[in-house]
Amino acid sequence: MVFMGSLQQLGRAFMLPMIVLPGAAIFLSLSKLPWAYIGLPGMEGYLVTASETIFTFLPYIFALGISLGLTGNALAAGMAALVGMFIYSGITGSAEVPIEPTVLIGTLIGIIAGVSHERFKSLRLPEYIQFFGGPRFVPLFVSVICLLFSIGMINVAPYLQKLLVELGEIVASGGGFGVFLYGFVHRILVVFGLHHLVSHVFWFQIGGYETATGKMVYGDLPRFFAGDPTAGVFMAGLYPTMMFALPAIALAIIHEAREDLKPKIRKTFLYAALASFLTGVTEPVEFAFLFVAPYLYVVHAILSGIIMWVTYELGIRHGFSFSAGAIDFVINEHLATRGWLIIPIGIVVGFIYYFLFRWAIRRFRIPTPGREEGSQLDEWAGDIPYRAPLILQAIGGKQNIVKMESCITRLRLKVSNDKLLDVNALRNLGAAGVIKLGGGQVQVVFGTYSELIREEMIKTIHRDQAQVLFHSPMQGRMIPLDEVPDPIFAGKLVGQGVAFIPEKGELVSPVKGKVIHIYPTMHAIGLLTPEGLEVLLHIGIDTSRLAGKAYFNALVKEGDEVTPGMMLIKFDLQRVRKESKSLATPMVITNSDLVHSWRFAPFKAVKKGQSSVLSVVLKERNGGGETQ
């Protein structure tokens, strides 16, 4: 699993250089417009040159992007990768038979630079040459490695280029079944965020094509944009899945949601469907059923492979620069072969997926979003700065984060202890899924807002504010304080906070602190945090008259030190429910004048001791306690 964690970091690094490809596709598409008719006859040539330049320097772009992606944007690694590429192209280009750099070479040099940086960034040399130690050693080391590598490549490159062409022919000999396997494996690897690895091989390395100028290009994607009529095999079949199948699943989830939750689910999943249709970003929809029905995801992966097989057999060849969404479909249609067939195929696929998923959700009672109170994928895009501190706490706090990166749809973390992650809290805060890959490598799927979440978390980490973070004091449902059926608490006359409807007769400490008061009936308890906040926990409404251990039993005494999750009071849930006005249990800060601002998690189901239900920022920084 540690190996899987390393692969997910490499997969994320592949995404960075690919963000330049849409520009090349757009330039090439725009070059087809009648510029001469509007008095700009030279524009076509400029646009074509701009597009071709991106593809010409793609090996350099991959070397730079991968090195930065593997090191958290370390400039020394990026410089080392570029220097390595210059050395390689200079030496191999001056050989008796000049060798052009490929994306494969750029990838290898990018990995060498990234790994070298992580290995030598803290290198200590004797004091008189320490100037060349640490990160400054990396470009020197990579330069030497690339020098030796380039000399060796002069002898083996002709065989390697021949091997890539033959490998493409071998893959092509697999016909439709080979394309099916690629489609199936691609969808399965999406779960682990490793699909970029297999795609990179097929899109940028396998198969060769010689252009009219005699230049060789490799890989399904560059060959497609270079005009190879046989290219696009490993891209065309993704269009029906992303443009039609995933939106159909989103519609099925909407239509199977409960009526009371359907408005919110409709808004959330219409956005997710639109994102999949336009841009090919599928994880927000796929993760909505992945964890609750993994067998259904396997069926989805098989169907995806079959769709690719069908497009292959029908002779459809289409490509994309970013992903198989409608935007790329339209921009690149002029280069496609029988690309228009994707539309009718997609419509049929959409109907199949829609009725299959509606039947499966209903037949197997799959708890997709909207089918139960604790639905995931809450719509909260405008709430990102508000929830970032809560997400940070659910990850285990800033002290648990070793490295934090993001790709298009997920946070990619390396943590000191993945057991400190509160998965339930992260899902309540909007995560579609949490994947632990071992070695502290964790992915939290937040959809297309992942980069914004990362930025806000970084701001939270660096912001000099004293915060107190609250855990859930009981299992049940969190509600706003103004919904408590008591004018004193609802009117916030006692203090500001939240309330809970318990499902079990257990009350635990929400914070680190000290017990300062236990009411004689033991229905309420007061805590004092190290920051000076006074927290009142009051079990039920009108419960002060319920005396005796038959109702409440305190397991702590005044003066005891408590930590989050420590048991405070056990109570007879059924008797209290029967003999009280309400089970609503307020958790309020009675000296709210010390609080500068409040952040509340979504009001939904919570587990006992769950982190990130409430966060407050203090007016003054007092230090101590569970702050960050």
* Shape summary: globular
Largest sheet entry: 8 strands, antiparallel
Distance between the termini: 30 Å
User: Could you estimate the helical fraction of the residues in percent?
Assistant: 40-55%
Short structural summary:
This protein is of the alpha+beta class. It contains 22 helices and 20 strands.
Walk me through this protein's architecture.
It is a single chain. The protein is globular. Helix content is 47%, strand content 15%. The protein is built from 22 helices and 20 strands. Helix 4 (58-71) runs parallel beside helix 6 (103-120), helix 8 (175-190) packs antiparallel against helix 9 and helix 12 runs parallel beside helix 17. Strand 12 and strand 13 form a beta hairpin. By secondary structure, it is an alpha+beta fold. The strands form five sheets. It has an eight-stranded antiparallel sheet with strand order 15-11-12-13-17-9-8-19. The chain has a four-stranded antiparallel sheet with strand order 3-4-6-5, sandwiched between helices.
Secondary structure: elements and pairs:
Layout: H1 2-18, H2 21-30, H3 43-56, H4 58-71, H5 75-93, H6 103-120, H7 137-173, H8 175-190, H9 195-204, E1 208-210, E2 216-218, H10 220-225, H11 233-236, H12 238-255, H13 262-279, H14 283-290, H15 294-313, H16 326-331, H17 342-363, H18 384-394, E3 401-406, E4 410-415, H19 423-428, E5 433-438, E6 441-445, H20 450-462, E7 467-470, E8 476-480, H21 487-490, E9 496-502, E10 506-508, E11 513-518, E12 524-528, E13 534-538, E14 552-554, E15 561-562, E16 567-571, H22 573-579, E17 585-589, E18 595-600, E19 605-606, E20 614-618
